[in-house]
Amino acid sequence: MGKMIDIEKTRIGVVGGGSWGTALAKLLADKGFVLDLWVFEPEVKEQIEKERENRFFLPNIKLPKNIIPSNDLEAVVKDKDLVLMVVPSHCMRDMAGKMKNFISPETIIVTASKGIENETHLTMTQILAEKIDFLPKENLAVLSGPSFAKEVANKVPTVVAAASISRRVAEYVQKIFSCSTFRVYVNDDPIGTQIGGAMKNVLAIAAGICDGMKMGLNPRAALITRGLTEMNRLGIKLGADPLTLAGLAGVGDLLLTCTGALSRNYTVGRQIGEGKKLNEIISEMRMVAEGVKTTKSVYNLSKKLGVDLPICNEVYGVLFNEIPVKETVDHLMNRTLKHELDGVVGN
Question: Which CATH superfamily is domain 7-188 in?
Answer without folding.
Answer: NAD(P)-binding Rossmann-like Domain (3.40.50.720)
